[in-house]
Design brief:
Layout lengths: L2 E9 L8 E5 L4 E12 L5 E8 L10 E8 L4 E10 L4 E5 L5 E11 L1
Antiparallel strand pairs: 1-8, 2-7, 3-6, 3-8, 4-5, 4-7
């Protein structure tokens, strides 16, 4: 089983107050997510959310990992995840601004 350490996803919300895909586990792969960095690119505080849609399921509140957590203006924060994902799982981000950057780090493994 090959393991590929990599940046799994990088994104800004595609539009304010819209869920945006950060990473989807490709067919034939599994993933281990080690950390997520969140960088507020403005001087104002921004609230953000993160969810996991298991196997691409329809949106549901039970998928929420982070809900309306504040990212202080001009500050970056790192979340340590140790999260495992299967083929078809989708990590999504949300914020009321497009001026907040998300970077997901981890490894992909052959399923």
């Amino acid at each position: 089983m090959a393991i590929h350490y990599k940046v799994l996803g990088q994104a800004l919300p595609s539009a304010a107050s819209t869920w945006t895909q950060l990473y989807a586990v490709p067919t034939g792969k599994e993933a281990v997510c080690s950390s997520l960095t969140v960088a507020n690119l403005t001087a104002d505080d921004i609230l953000y959310r993160v969810r996991i849609r298991v196997a691409g399921a329809a949106a549901n509140d039970k998928q929420t990992l982070v809900y309306d957590t504040a990212a202080a203006g001009g500050v970056s924060q790192a979340l340590q995840l140790s999260m495992t994902l299967s083929t078809g799982d989708i990590v999504e981000i949300y914020a009321p601004s497009t001026s907040i950057a998300f970077n997901l780090f981890g490894s992909e493994l052959d399923a």
